[in-house]
Each structure stands twice: as structure tokens, then as C-alpha cells.
Design goal:
- The complex is a heterodimer of chains A (171) and B (171).
- With 171 residues, chain A is an all-alpha fold.
- Chain A is built from five helices and no strands.
- About 4% of the residues of chain B have low confidence.
- The longest helix of chain B has 25 residues.
- With 171 residues, chain B is mostly helical.
- Chain B is built from eleven helices and no strands.
- Chain B is 76% helix and 0% strand.
- The chains are: A mainly alpha (171), B mainly alpha (171).
- At the A-B interface, α2, α3 and α4 of A face α1, α2, α3, α8 and α9 of B.
Chain lengths: 171, 171
């Protein structure tokens, strides 16, 4: 090929104005040996591109591997959905257990504790009397407790007296 | 689409997908894995394939997205596949190939590696794979302007560096 034409094509190539066909022409030109020295930089570049294009998957069994994967993938895809459903059902089962457990525990707690909370008297007067009785009982025990506490007070007083005396002795 | 037409129509693009995934991930094993995953997705979405105008670009876009997902999970786990972190070259070249590959081509390779990601991807899609600008827009989900600007920058920065190396022997 005419080296002037190549030069013109190369100028276009560096400007990125070449079409694919023109780039093919260049590729063909540079695939031959004995490139004039003036095109050295382009020759190195095109030689590199050519070498890259020759790179191939080296594995011989590659195609059959792909086909095998494709054939299993159809079922694998389905199992993906199945797996997803499986996970969902696991979570759902967990939630159900928690909900049922809290329901039972709540009803159990209700059953055992709240007996006293339920109204015992239907007549308000009677209830009032009973309450009064209960309060009286509490206040009575309070009074009793106070008497006991007074004894402790006595003890305290004695202690203070002893302390005072020992203080005056020291002086 | 049945498996047979999948094998004849879709599987042959594996090398393009593989090269692109390798460009993004830098690991042969990871790239192969991603390509397999892409094919599984394509197979699962085969009903929609007839509606897609350019299914090859669509495959490339899935490749890009899956590769970027992987990079994101590496970053999150703060780990990288051993091969890329230790920078092991696993390209097994025949003695013939390794003597054939000249130094300048490897230098170009490292220059392209050093480009920003967007530029690197665009120059790969255009100059290695020969995609049209519109296809590159679809694959990388960029607008036309960005694609052109980045391709221009990529080609010219590589060119300038090659010229510099050739002129002064600088690396």
C-alpha cells in the first residue's frame, strides 16, 4: 500500500476520525513485516492490538462446562426461588412461635395473679365496711409498731446520756 | 433458543468476552469465571434476546457489570486474587511466541495498562475488538462524546509516550 495513503490514514487515526473500515486497512497494513521506520510508533501499537486479539480462552473443556452450567442453571434458578420461600417460611415460623408464646404467657399470667384484683363485693356499703376494717387493722399494727419503736428510742436516750457523761469525765 | 443454536450463535463470542473480562480483572481464572456467568445469564434471559438489537454488545455489557461487581467485592473484602496481587504473569507463551514478541510491544502493553480505566477500556473495545462508537457507548453505558474524547486521549497519550521512548530511550 502507498505509504502516503498510510500516512494520511494514520493522521486521521490519531485524530479519531477514521472509520472502522479505515482502521481495518491500517490493521492489515501493519500486520505485515517490514514497516518503514517513519511508522514505528504506530507499528508497535498495532502489533500490540494484534497480539491482544489473538488471546483466547485456553481451556478446551470451556464450552462443555458452560453448557453444563446452563443445563443446571434452569433448575438452580427454580431452587433459588424455593430457597427464598424456605427462608421466608423459617422467619414466618419463628414469628408465629413468638406470637403464640406471648399470647399463652399473657393468659397464664392473667390466670395466676389477678384473683385479688377482681371485685370481691357487689354491695358498695359492705365493701366500704370491709375496707374500713382492713385499714383499722393496718393502723392498729402501726400503733403497735410505734410502741415497739419507742423502746428503741429509750435505748438511744440512754446511749446519749452515757456519751455525755463520758465527755464530761474526759474534760 | 435451544442449546444447539446457543452453542453455534452465542458461545463463539467467548473470546471477546474473555479478553474484555481479562482487561478489567487482570486474572485469567476470574475472567473465565465471569464469562461463564455471563453465558448463564444470557441463557436465562434468552427470551428477551430477540428483542435486543445488538446482543453481542449486550453480552459485553453484562461482562463489564459482572467484572466490576467482582472488583467491588474484592475491595470490600480488601482482598485480591493471589495472582494479580503478586503480579504473576501466567501467560504461557511458547518459546516461539516469546522470542517473537518484541520489546516495544510489551512496552506498549505497559503504557496501555497505565492509562486511566475508562480510556483503557475504550481503546480496547475500539482498537482490539473493532466495535463501533455506538456499540462502545452501549457496552460502557457512556455517551458518545465521552467515548470519543477518551479514545482521543488514550491514543494520543500512548502515541506521545512511544515517541518519547523512541527518541530518548526513556521509559
Amino acid at each position: 500500500m502507498d505509504s502516503n495513503k498510510i500516512e494520511a490514514l494514520l493522521a486521521k487515526y490519531w485524530e479519531c476520525e477514521t472509520s472502522l473500515e479505515e482502521e481495518n486497512e491500517l490493521r492489515e497494513y501493519f500486520s505485515q513485516r517490514d514497516i518503514p521506520a517513519q511508522f514505528r510508533e504506530a507499528a508497535a501499537l498495532f502489533a500490540y492490538f494484534g497480539e491482544q486479539r489473538n488471546k483466547q480462552v485456553k481451556e478446551i473443556a470451556f464450552d462443555s462446562k458452560v453448557v453444563e452450567r446452563i443445563q443446571t442453571s434452569t433448575s438452580a434458578n427454580r431452587s433459588k426461588v424455593v430457597r427464598l420461600m424456605y427462608n421466608f417460611s423459617k422467619i414466618a415460623a419463628g414469628l408465629i412461635v413468638v406470637v403464640v408464646a406471648t399470647y399463652y404467657i399473657r393468659s397464664e399470667i392473667r390466670k395466676t395473679t389477678p384473683q385479688e384484683m377482681v371485685d370481691t363485693y357487689s354491695d358498695p356499703k359492705l365493701a366500704f365496711e370491709e375496707t374500713k376494717k382492713a385499714l383499722m387493722m393496718i393502723s392498729k399494727s402501726f400503733g403497735h409498731a410505734e410502741e415497739q419503736a419507742k423502746k428503741i428510742n429509750l435505748l438511744n436516750e440512754a446511749k446519749e446520756n452515757i456519751q455525755e457523761e463520758s465527755d464530761t469525765q474526759e474534760l | 433458543m435451544d442449546i444447539e443454536s446457543f452453542q453455534t450463535r452465542v458461545l463463539p463470542v467467548k473470546n471477546k468476552l474473555y479478553r474484555f473480562a481479562f482487561r478489567l480483572l487482570g486474572s485469567e481464572e476470574e475472567a473465565k469465571d465471569v464469562v461463564q456467568e455471563v453465558f448463564v445469564r444470557v441463557w436465562n434471559g434468552r427470551e428477551n434476546m430477540e428483542a435486543i438489537q445488538n446482543w453481542e454488545a449486550w453480552c459485553m455489557r453484562i461482562t463489564k457489570n459482572l467484572s466490576l461487581d467482582r472488583i467491588r467485592t474484592w475491595k470490600r473484602r480488601n482482598t485480591q486474587p493471589i495472582e494479580s496481587s503478586f503480579d504473576v504473569q501466567e501467560e504461557s507463551l511458547t518459546p516461539y511466541e516469546s522470542t517473537e514478541i518484541n520489546e516495544s510491544m510489551q512496552r506498549v502493553g505497559s503504557l496501555i495498562e497505565a492509562l486511566p480505566e475508562k480510556q483503557r477500556n475504550i481503546i480496547h473495545l475500539r482498537d482490539v475488538e473493532g466495535y463501533s462508537y455506538q456499540e462502545i457507548c452501549d457496552i460502557l453505558e457512556l455517551d458518545m462524546n465521552q467515548v470519543k474524547v477518551n479514545l482521543f486521549r488514550a491514543r494520543n497519550s500512548v502515541r506521545e509516550k512511544i515517541i518519547k521512548i523512541n527518541a530518548y530511550g526513556l521509559k
